[in-house]
Amino acid sequence: MKTLDLSLYVISGQCFTPERELLKVMEEALAGGATVIQLREKNMTVRELVEVGAKLQKLARQHGATFIINDHVDVALAIDADGVHLGQDDLSVSEARTLLGPKKIIGLSTHSLEQALVASSLPLDYLGVGPVFTTPTKPDMRPVGLELLTEVSRQLTVPFVAIGGIDETNLEQVLATGARNVAVIRAVVAAADVTGAARRLRARIAAQTA
Q: Which three-class secondary structure state does DSSP give residue 94?
């Protein structure tokens, strides 16, 4: 089993670029060095998620990347995705692990140190920690700030991905907390040059964490 590289985690965001084909955008992100891609489309039907997800899974494998489905364990099972990312109100990690088996990847969003500490004892592979900054993806959620990243980095050994409003302008601040992995949506998928944006982020993360 390959080592899970979470360093540049790109999440789909069709709502930000409705005029561009999702598959093409994500393929360009992979070409730029995305190590993980996640299908997160709240307005898609299950059938649409299965159809698009199967194609993204194929693309991810061609690029040696990991493919994650947001929320839908059933979709992940249907298309043999590499794993699933869950929110605090989704199916529990333990239930997801029972359904997916021991080899699939499970991630869980956390929004406080308490949640992260509880999650660290669950049968999962990584945590999402955020939103670090204000983001339209989570408009009703208060940003957790850089301080939480610092605390999670100090107190936990489970891999985690910083997420929420991260882009080239604040990446250095995020990495300075000890975070080694970054998840983005707009910073890549809404960029004029998707591949270039991904490549720049990946290079800066690699340089900072070497």
A: helix
Under the banding of pLDDT at 50, 70 and 90, the label for residue 92 is very high
pLDDT, tens digit, 9 for 90 and up, residues 163-201: 999 999 999 999 999 999 999 999 999 999 999 999 999
In a domain? residue 114: yes
Assess if residue 53 is contained within a domain.
yes
Q: Considering only CA atoms, give the Rg of the chain.
A: 16
> Which of the residues are catalytic?
40, 109, 138
109-143 pLDDT, tens digit each: 999 999 999 999 999 999 999 999 988 777 778 89
Domain count for the chain, please give it: 1
Residue 22, domain CATH: 3.20.20.70
In a domain, 134, yes or no: yes
How far apart, in whole angstroms, are the C-alpha atoms of residue 140 and residue 165? Answer: 14
User: pLDDT value at position 138?
Assistant: 75
For residue 199, is it within any domain? yes
List strand residue ranges (DSSP E) for the chain, in order: 8-11, 36-39, 66-70, 83-86, 105-110, 126-129, 160-163, 182-184
Q: Which domain holds residue 186?
A: 8-209
Q: What is the pTM (predicted TM-score) of this model? A: 0.96
Place of tokens 């308490």: 114
121's CB contacts (< 8 A; 6+ apart) are none
Amino acid found at 135: T
